[in-house]
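Blinded run. Sample ID left blank on purpose so nobody reads anything into the name before looking at the predicted structure. Input follows.
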Amino acid sequence: MPDTNLTNSAIINAYIAATPGSAALHAKALGAFPSGITHDSRWLKPYPLSCAKGKGPIKWDVDGNRYVDLFGGHGSHLLGHCPDDVVEATIEQMRKGSQFGASHALEIEWANLIQEMVPSAERVRFTSSGTEATHMAVRLARAHTGRSKIARFHRHFHGWHDVMAFGVDGHFDGTPTPGVTEAVADGVKLLPPNDIDAVRALFEADDDIAAVIIEPIGANTGNVPIPGSFLKALRALTQEYGVLLIMDEVVTGFRLAPGGAQEARGVTPDLCTLAKVVAGGLPGGAVAGRKDLLDELDFEVSAAKGREKIKHPGTYNANPVSAAAGIVTLRTIRDTDACARANAAGEAVRTSLRNVLVEENVPWGIYGEFSFFFIFTNAAKLDIDPLTFNSFSVPSSTFGPDPRKTLTQKLHLGMITNGVDPMGFRGGILSATHGPEEVAAITTAFRDTLRGLKAEGEI
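Blinded prediction complete.
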């Protein structure tokens, strides 16, 4: 059973009082799921929030409480919850069929939009998720180069398959996490973020690196930020050493700009991985990139070259319902200022929350780019000015998890009880539907939460 006993914290008690429906559902979920959850990020004490519906920038929990949503479907909802035209396209396709076990016209239209919008997308292969997409990208890189190792950066998240299952929030020494073999871990080289000299040293020392994969604006979409200059330097270095560059655009794709980080940063990778926005918030992902690399999946090309092709089945690859939602979503992004509106909302929130920190005399920082914002809770007690805090001027190690678990728990719960559902305690994601009213609500919730934390001696 979830712990719904009153505590000595007004913040926690307010959450418990407001969300009895979520507590009841979690009690049932504990009998079905490990920890009562279906995604690690939903783990929250005393129990996670359960939601019932969403529209635009707003969602409602099972108790009818209204929230400004800053989780954005894990980044899927650039157009907000339930855009009318996406919903209608999805319903229409469901009436026609959700799975044919055959090719269909929508998959071609969907792929053509990706090719039109994404600079690297000479060819496309659909998957069912972002994890599947990074898994395929790694396999393509190894097959094409004949090399066996993949380079990754500390804290950068690329899904949960074996090659990506360590070095994200621990095991930075390269040792495997439970269930991953040492042989798999030995095929991965972990690098410190933002250190181009370390990348060069690796390439000099090891000529068996097939590819390097990176989140293009930093780990967890900028929570550990990297400047655009580093991405450009990495592209130049990979070309110099004949190493493939895989840009993980599972979250940034079609969000930073219609062409994703590739357009926004002016860097074209050899391969990119896509999910979330690409399928309009439905399950779906893709690998896109150079034709010669995707040709490793091609029956005819592989036969002509006398090689074994990479096998890639997948019941839900290019699912027609996801395709219908993806087509409408990508057209909207291509033909409107949706990305610009989401980015403007992100900038408005960052500016407003910095002012709150100054007003409340809290020496934290607010940072991020495009439609993301992050809260730097300053566990190391650095001497910073919230108005001038520059996330690129401090070491990447500064952005490690805050060890003050009670503070971060209360920060998260406080935002929820003040009417905002953030992306955990660390920040949020804005959509094209977040406007001045939502920015004001986020600002008020942040201010009230800080005052609650002060009252309980947390800051």
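Unblinding after everyone has recorded impressions. DSSP finds 17 helices and 15 strands in the chain.
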